[in-house]
Design brief:
Blueprint: E1 4-11, E2 21-30, E3 35-39, E4 44-51, E5 53-58, E6 61-66, E7 70-73, E8 79-83, E9 90-97, H1 101-108, E10 116-117, H2 122-136, H3 142-169, H4 189-204, H5 212-219, H6 223-234, H7 238-254, H8 260-266, H9 272-283, H10 287-298
Antiparallel strand pairs: 1-2, 2-9, 3-8, 4-7, 4-9, 5-6, 5-8, 7-10
Helix pairs in contact: 2-3, 4-6, 4-7
Length: 299
């Protein structure tokens, strides 16, 4: 909080499982040069810039942003964003998650490689996001607050989709709408890109017998140096991150009809007993117990 001139936050006390739901929403004005990352998130995080300036880095590209721009952080994608050193931005944000979210976002034109939006109608977005946040702050009914937040989120995404459509109609997507020139930006872009590539390799190859050594060789690094960069960016070692990806995938697969042995093999473990041991460390219960509790909740 001390790194912001302004800070407001509201949390959804009753997000629904199994559908797109808001987790929290806020507004802030960070101090000059304040930055977040490089880091990854477990959820989607949409920012809309109200005034001032800043930069957003994702997938090895850097974008300069100002009032009327928006950017979306995707889960498990390494990002970094920083307020201008002279005119720090003010922005509003919404964090959300849920099944079908990626498909919905892709349908309106938002993808990890196309996560920056220009020319948003600020007044509409400001109003919807303000109402969403104040709605979450109401103490009378968490369930009703969740319903309102879900509706407001969809209105916000509708406005974002309309801005993307206008940009395509006007021939946007390159030049001032594209990545910024990286000249004069902070050093470390090569390291940022390397960690981002490592994350994508781990995320895509979790079902194979992936090793840190092989990824380091692919990226042209020594294992120890890559591990150091990875920890600085994410707070985890590459193998800890791989375990997180595998365990989250296992949770999804255990909701289906695969046997425990088939789930283990699907995420890169030949030994079901070793998988069971790792899953118990992750969740506090065995795969069989986890599946049974899922079934009980659904029943």
């Amino acid at each position: 909080m001390d790194k912001h001139y302004e800070w407001q936050l509201a949390v959804n006390e009753a997000p629904l499982k199994g559908e797109m739901s808001v987790l929290f929403s806020g507004q802030g004005k960070p101090v000059e040069g304040h930055f977040i990352g490089p880091a990854v998130h477990d959820f989607y995080l949409l920012h809309v810039v109200l005034d001032g300036e800043g930069t957003f880095e994702t997938l090895g590209e850097t974008y300069r942003l100002a009032a009327g721009d928006a950017f979306l952080i995707f889960p498990d994608i390494l990002v970094r964003y920083e307020a201008s050193g002279t005119k720090p931005w003010t922005y509003m944000w919404i964090a959300f998650e849920g099944e079908g979210t990626e498909q919905l976002l892709r349908g309106i034109g938002l993808t990890p490689a196309g996560a920056v939006v220009r020319g948003c109608r600020q007044s509409r977005l400001r109003r919807e996001m303000y109402c969403l946040r104040t709605g979450l702050s109401k103490a009378d009914s968490a369930a009703l607050s969740n319903l309102e937040a879900s509706a407001r989120l969809r209105q916000v995404l509708h406005e974002i989709g309309c801005a993307l459509r206008r940009g395509r109609a006007e021939g946007g997507g390159t030049g001032e709408h594209g990545p910024a020139d990286t000249e004069g930006l902070p050093a470390g872009h090569r390291a940022f890109r390397s960690v981002d590539q490592a994350i994508r390799l781990l995320t895509l190859q979790f079902g194979q017998h992936t090793s840190v050594d092989s990824i380091a060789r692919t990226l042209g690094y020594h294992r120890s140096h890559l591990t150091k960069l990875f920890k600085e960016a994410t707070g985890m070692s590459p193998m800890q991150y791989l375990n997180k990806v595998r365990m989250k995938k296992a949770e999804t697969l255990l909701a289906g009809d695969l046997t425990v042995a088939q789930v283990a093999a699907s995420i890169g473990y030949n030994d079901p007993l070793f998988f069971t041991k790792q899953f118990r460390k992750w969740s506090g219960q065995s795969p069989t117990e986890y599946r049974r509790r899922l079934t009980e909740r659904e029943g």
